[in-house]
Amino acid sequence: MKRRIGILVLALMLILSLNVFAEKADRYEQVFDASQDAGKLTARFLQLTTRSDDKSGDCTILTSPDGKVMVIDAGNPSTFVDVDNALKALGITRIDYLVASHPHVDHIGSFAQLIYAYEIGAVYTSEIEYPTSHYRRYMEAIESTNTPHIILAEGDSFKFGSDVLVEVLHPAKGIEYFEGYPDGSTQFINNRSLVMKLTYKDSSFLFTGDIYTAAEREIVARYEDKLKADVLKVPHHGDSTSSSRPLRTTVDPQIAVMMHDAIADLRIYRNYSNAGAATYITSIDGAVMVSTEGDGEYTVISQFDRVNDFLD
Ligand SMILES: [Zn+2]
After folding, report:
1. Cβ distance 70 to 95 under 8 Å?
2. CB hemisphere CA count around 157 (13 angstroms)
3. How far is the CA of 62 from the centre of ligand 1 (A)?
4. Mean pLDDT, 10 residues at a time, over the chain (312 residues)?
5. Does the predicted TM-score (pTM) go above 0.90?
6. What structural domains does the chain harbor?
């Protein structure tokens, strides 16, 4: 009997030492701790969990050094709870800049709910119109709450708080719809996502929505080195429709973040990672916080640790 207990104890120790039952560390509270945000430009890339057939989508919450709030995209409607929880954890009640990269449901799905639940400074979109029920619902929300609606196009720029410059690099003004629009318009709309560069002193972030390689080619040709940015929101959730070599080498990010329910394409992940970028996928790493004082140096906190090395 004693011997059997001894063996059981040994087995238990072995199991514990293998961390089989070890709880996965969860740094959600650290990622969404706003107490150190003053004086920094901080981006929090959310891990959204879809509760519908639509993919969860993108949502990034940014805070300026002087405490203004920008939300770029806000997942499909079923992810509103994730966006709402993150905003609440950060103590945010007002969104000064609510930005839609483009009007697909995985980017604007939660907009109507956000507009009704939060005080909104203004909604910023490209001029593209997309007659779907989700789109109409958020346009109705803008109207019925008298929220200012600002249309952005290439060449526009504005200040995010007093210290951060936002430059709109794409799309150009004057969208020409093809005949039969919006049937078969997925690529057309994705390629007209807002591309915005945020600069705070020596630090920079590039947000690319869901552009494909066609739009990447255009902006690389138009801007060349001006596209360079330390932190890249990887286009189209890390899918192989996007992240062409010219884009990757021109932006040359230190940090690349993909928001996705899974992994869109492992090769795209490796392309960034092998080029030396610290590369994150929200499906694996959870929410990711990237923060800078404007000196080109970044603090990154991801919600989860990697439990194996299959991404290496
Ligand atoms: Zn998308």
Report:
1. yes
2. 11
3. 19
4. 60 53 82 98 97 94 98 97 98 98 98 98 97 95 98 98 98 95 97 98 98 98 98 98 98 98 96 98 97 98 90 82
5. yes
6. 24-302 (3.60.15.10)
